Amino acid sequence: xxxxxxxxxxxxxxxxxxxxxxxxxxxxxxxxxxxxxxxxxxxxxxxxxxxxxxxxxxxxxxxxxxxxxxxxxxxxxxxxxxxxxxxxxxxxxxxxxxxxxxxxxxxxxxxxxxxxxxxxxxxxxxxxxxxxxxxxxxxxxxxxxxxxxxxxxxxxxxxxxxxxxxxxxxxxxxxxxxxxxxxxxxxxxxxxxxxxxxxxxxxxxxxxxxxxxxxxxxxxxxxxxxxxxxxxxx
Length: 234
Hints:
Membrane topology: Peripheral membrane protein
Strand content: 15-25%
Subunit structure: NDH-1 is composed of 14 different subunits. Subunits NuoB, C, D, E, F, and G constitute the peripheral sector of the complex.
EC number: 7.1.1.-
Helix content: 10-25%
Family: Belongs to the complex I 30 kDa subunit family.
Radius of gyration: 22 Å
Pfam families: Complex1_30kDa
Strand order of the largest sheet: 1-2-5-4-3
Order of helices and strands: HHEEHEEEEHE
Mean pLDDT: 81
CATH class of the largest domain: Alpha Beta
CATH topology of the largest domain: Beta Polymerase, domain 2
Structural class: alpha/beta
CATH architecture of the largest domain: 2-Layer Sandwich
CATH superfamily of the largest domain: NADH:ubiquinone oxidoreductase Nqo5 subunit
Shape: globular
Number of domains: 2
């Protein structure tokens, strides 16, 4: 038994092989959402573009102590740090890519900082909103002082980032994963090979311009249909 729609029209994508609706862009449109940056369809979330301006001092909390200690311990602070952003209770230091290894060395070894652990290295693709589209984000933790800080570098596609594995060995597989998913090349990494995808895989699946369908499935001979050929439930 089928139930006829109240308005007398069949919903788009209700039948197999009917054209599916796809969002107009990565910022809006999915699941019929308009007027916000929410592409999930849930919660009314708004996707914010990356912050461009530095936050003014004082930053509050231990953030001033961390930045002051780094500035005192690192003579190239003014040249290496592009901006300092405090947002939603978190401190982010935006650093020139070529300086990242120097900065993390100071962050780990200086007695006033002591960020002994790099808990995460990950990537972000700001396609269409930043000429340096590929960002690498480092989360550092000071177990001595119970503090956390985020470091972030930005590079254009094809520009390498110095590896921090000599300072934080835990970054080894994390840099490999960022290379695998986003295509960021970490210069000086001891073994920069894929860690999630097969060695002969083409492309980097977490880039914004990576195809959403039509990719042959390994070992099965099947193929994921592209978005405009999938069934949509509405």
